[in-house]
């Protein structure tokens, strides 16, 4: 049953039983990075204890075994994402590096002065800045798809902007600030019919629901392992094979070549052409272990985190002055909120003192904050291993904050000297 499942999942994550400021840790900052199950920690440790060698250049058994396990990890990820050819999945350090790869390799080749690049108002900086740098290098122009008041994407505005024939549309599958799940299948179809190439930032989607890339008509899909219960420093870029094949390398070095002389280099094929230098071998193994872990109970985990978010929201709505930002039609398990009269950093600090970890600030989405007219928000983001008790602790702590302020005002009113 659900309670047994939740208790079992929680036991898999050693860090969740630690304390913070003397209280049991309530980790509600999963959109920043998730905690790691012991299966992931063990896979990394096992690799270093019994399998550590460099890959793809082995003259010995240990290296050959490391290569097999490393490429097996790629296949595990590829299969999970519905990718037929694992060679079209490039390892990167994460989403940011994946987007930079496309902006530099594909972008430098295809974007010309006056070309248009279409971005989403709620984009993470990782899906803005690489395009801005590209626009500065090439003389391209950036347009922005606005959101509606309910924070759903404004599809009419999007279709109008497509009439400007952008060369590239860079979308987010899920907003890391609002939790909004965008209608990416429809948006990719529209963008492709308008002749654009499409990149999707999947950093906040994969942690919450399964994605089958065969059903999404995009050209590139980027993600990070550390938001997906895997280690930091590993992530990936999937790209359409013909595009990847036609793109020049973006970093040079070992691993990515066939033949080198001082006058000429023949590059390796996919995926190695885009993987210069010794890769994050342990990271790939840890991430594959995370995927194996997720594959077991995904539907139940998704239901659990949705239930936790709803519970937290309804408890928080009892707190005077609490306001959650709308998350659109189908939000994933996170929400941004404000508390009237309190600065977001003070709220996060107060919660931290109670052992509750949330994130305050602009969440690497300053243009979204500007459009909402806010300096920042507090964000609570859930994973399947959170508990109802933690959801209630969040609401209770906010209530205490409001009450403490009120009593200070009362005291001030009563004791203020009359001048
Ligand atoms: N895009 C989104 C939507 C994100 O939430 C994040 C991480 N906050 C990133 C991109 C960047 O991911 P990374 O820092 O792992 O490269």
Please tell me about this protein's structure:
The chain has 419 residues and is of the alpha/beta class. Helices cover 42% and strands 16% of the residues. It contains 12 helices and 17 strands. It has helices spanning 2-11, 38-51, 61-80, 95-110, 129-138, 155-162, 184-193, 241-246, 281-316, 344-353, 366-372, 388-415; strands spanning 19-20, 23-24, 26-27, 89-92, 116-120, 141-145, 168-172, 197-201, 220-224, 235-239, 257-260, 265-267, 322-324, 334-339, 356-357, 359-361, 377-381. It has a 7-stranded mixed β-sheet with strand order 4-10-9-8-7-5-6, with helices on both faces. The protein has a 4-stranded antiparallel β-sheet with strand order 13-14-17-16, covered by helices on one side. A hairpin with a 2-residue loop joins strand 1 (19-20) and strand 2 (23-24). Helix 2 (38-51) runs antiparallel to helix 9 (281-316), helix 3 runs parallel beside helix 9 (281-316) and helix 4 (95-110) packs parallel to helix 5. The termini are far apart. 45% of the residues are buried. Mean pLDDT is 96; it is low at 415-419. 4'-deoxy-4'-aminopyridoxal-5'-phosphate binds next to helix 4.
């Amino acid at each position: 049953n659900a309670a047994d499942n939740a208790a079992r999942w929680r036991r898999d994550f050693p860090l969740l039983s630690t304390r913070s400021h003397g209280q049991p840790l309530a980790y509600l900052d999963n959109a920043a990075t998730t905690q790691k199950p012991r299966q992931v920690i063990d896979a990394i440790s096992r690799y270093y204890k019994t399998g550590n060698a460099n890959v793809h250049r082995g003259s010995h058994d240990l290296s050959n075994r490391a290569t097999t396990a490393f490429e097996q990890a790629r296949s595990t990820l590829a299969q999970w994402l519905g990718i037929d050819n694992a060679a079209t999945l490039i390892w990167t350090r994460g989403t940011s590096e994946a987007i930079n790869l496309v902006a530099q390799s594909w972008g430098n080749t295809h974007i010309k002065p006056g070309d248009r690049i279409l971005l989403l108002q709620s984009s993470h900086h990782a899906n803005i800045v690489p395009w801005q740098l590209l626009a500065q290098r090439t003389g391209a122009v950036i347009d922005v798809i606005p959101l509606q008041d309910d924070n759903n994407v404004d599809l009419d505005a999007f279709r109008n902007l497509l009439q400007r024939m952008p060369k590239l549309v860079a979308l987010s599958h899920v907003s890391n600030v609002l939790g909004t799940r965008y209608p990416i299948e429809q948006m990719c179809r529209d963008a492709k019919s308008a002749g654009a190439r499409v990149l999707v930032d999947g950093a906040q989607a994969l942690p919450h629901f399964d994605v089958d890339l065969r059903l999404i008509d995009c050209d590139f899909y980027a993600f990070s392992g550390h938001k997906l219960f895997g280690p930091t420093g590993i992530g990936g870029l999937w790209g359409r094979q013909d595009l990847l094949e036609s793109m020049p390398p973006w970093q040079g070095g070992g691993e990515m070549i066939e033949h080198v002389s001082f006058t000429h280099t023949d590059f390796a094929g996919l995926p190695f052409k885009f993987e210069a230098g010794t890769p994050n071998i342990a990271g790939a193994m840890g991430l594959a272990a995370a995927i194996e872990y997720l594959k077991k109970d995904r539907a139940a985990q998704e239901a659990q985190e949705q239930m936790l978010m709803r519970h937290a929201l309804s408890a928080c709505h009892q707190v005077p002055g609490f306001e959650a930002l709308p998350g659109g039609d189908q939000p994933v398990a996170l929400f941004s909120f404000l508390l009237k009269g309190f600065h977001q950093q003070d709220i996060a600090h107060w919660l931290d003192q109670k052992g509750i970890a949330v994130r305050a600030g602009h969440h690497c989405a300053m243009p979204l904050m500007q459009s909402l007219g806010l300096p920042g928000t507090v964000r609570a983001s859930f994973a399947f291993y959170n508990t109802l008790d933690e959801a209630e602790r969040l609401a209770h702590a906010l209530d205490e904050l409001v009450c403490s302020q009120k009593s200070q005002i009362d005291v001030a009113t009563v004791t203020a000297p009359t001048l």
